[in-house]
Design brief:
Elements lengths: L1 H12 L4 H17 L3 H17 L3 H17 L3 H14 L5 H17 L3 H18 L2 H17 L3 H18 L2 H17 L3 H18 L2 H17 L3 H18 L2 H17 L3 H16 L7 H10 L4 H13 L1
Length: 327
């Protein structure tokens, strides 16, 4: 990010053309978004969009809108994200196939998280085909990885794993370390679901190491939390607690309330297993409070179900049942 800061500063001091300054803001906003710094990213991307509109550069404005939509998606604001992406589709110039592919991919995972799976699949199929046609290998790998998430949510685990492994191969060949780490983490999730827990732990450890290396804090937080779930399943609650604690601290700092809530709930469940009911109550109450603000979060019911299964006292049982009934 340092060289992007320097480039932007130089562009502003030199009174560079508006479109060039817009490009610099878009580049820095995109870099910040990838690292999970969505609030800063949105400020940069909003500036990029405004400058692009002033410069009458619709392709650049559409790219900024694509990144704004993605940042809003990362914050869990799905409706706002889709509106931005649809605006990008409206203004993207005819023939700007790369931006068209970017918008297709981003619309795919917003549709997926909105449980519109058929729509998401259509977006992904078009995006893969378009990027393959353009020879944009890295973008194809990214879309294949996202397509794998959709297949996993539909319980098509072998197909999901095949997509992840192909995406991993592409990113390794391209030298895209951050994306390589993401695909390792996705593969770990499938291995965990298949009950191959030691393999899952190993893949998460490799994914975590790469995300620490490249500074992608959002992926780091998510993989730390998912590795914590694996440690719980391996009956290692102390390791799990450490992983959940670091994950929630990172995700809270990034403003990712959805994933923070998920790992707070698992941290609370870990406290219950350790007999630390007061800590469990604090963490679970915090998780539920965040989930109440996002009733569409698909994992909320599963969090509550698992927490009920892990209860150890009638008082905890009563509190959890009240939470379930009010939620």
């Amino acid at each position: 990010l340092a060289w992007l800061d320097a480039a932007l500063s130089a562009a502003e001091k030199a009174d560079a053309p508006v479109a060039l300054t817009a490009e610099a803001y878009e580049a820095r906003g995109r870099a910040r978004r990838v690292r999970g710094r969505t609030h800063e990213a949105l400020a940069d991307l909003g500036k990029a969009r405004s400058l692009a509109a002033t410069a009458k550069a619709p392709g650049l404005e559409a790219r900024a809108l694509a990144q704004i939509g993605n940042a809003l998606y990362q914050q869990g604001k799905l409706d706002d994200a889709m509106l931005c992406l649809e605006e990008g589709v409206r203004i993207v110039p005819v023939g700007d196939r790369a931006t068209e592919g970017l918008l297709l991919s981003f619309r795919g995972f917003v549709a997926m998280d909105s449980h519109r799976f058929a729509e998401a699949e259509a977006f992904y199929e078009k995006a893969v085909s378009l990027h393959r046609e353009l020879g944009n290998v890295r973008a194809e790998g990214s879309v294949l990885g996202n397509y794998g998430i959709l297949l996993r949510r539909q319980r098509k685990l072998p197909e999901a794993l095949a997509h992840y492994e192909r995406a991993l191969e592409i990113h390794r060949l391209a030298g895209s370390r951050g994306y390589e780490g993401n695909e390792l983490g996705k593969i770990a999730g499938v291995l965990m679901e298949e009950g191959r827990l030691p393999e899952a732990r190993d893949h998460y450890a490799r994914a975590i190491a790469i995300q620490r290396e490249v500074g992608n804090r959002q992926s780091l937080g998510i993989f730390l939390g998912n590795c914590g779930i694996t440690e719980l399943l391996l009956s290692c609650p102390q390791r799990a607690e450490s992983l959940f604690s670091e994950a929630t601290e990172i995700l809270r700092g990034l403003g990712d309330l959805r994933h923070e809530a998920l790992y707070l709930a698992y941290l609370g469940a870990t406290n219950v297993l350790q007999g630390r009911l007061e800590s469990a109550g604090t963490n679970l109450a915090a998780a539920l409070e965040r989930l109440r603000d996002d009733p569409g979060f698909q994992e909320a019911a599963e969090i509550l179900r698992l927490t009920l299964l892990w209860r150890q006292s009638s008082e905890v049982d009563r509190q959890f049942r009240e939470s379930v009934s009010t939620f």
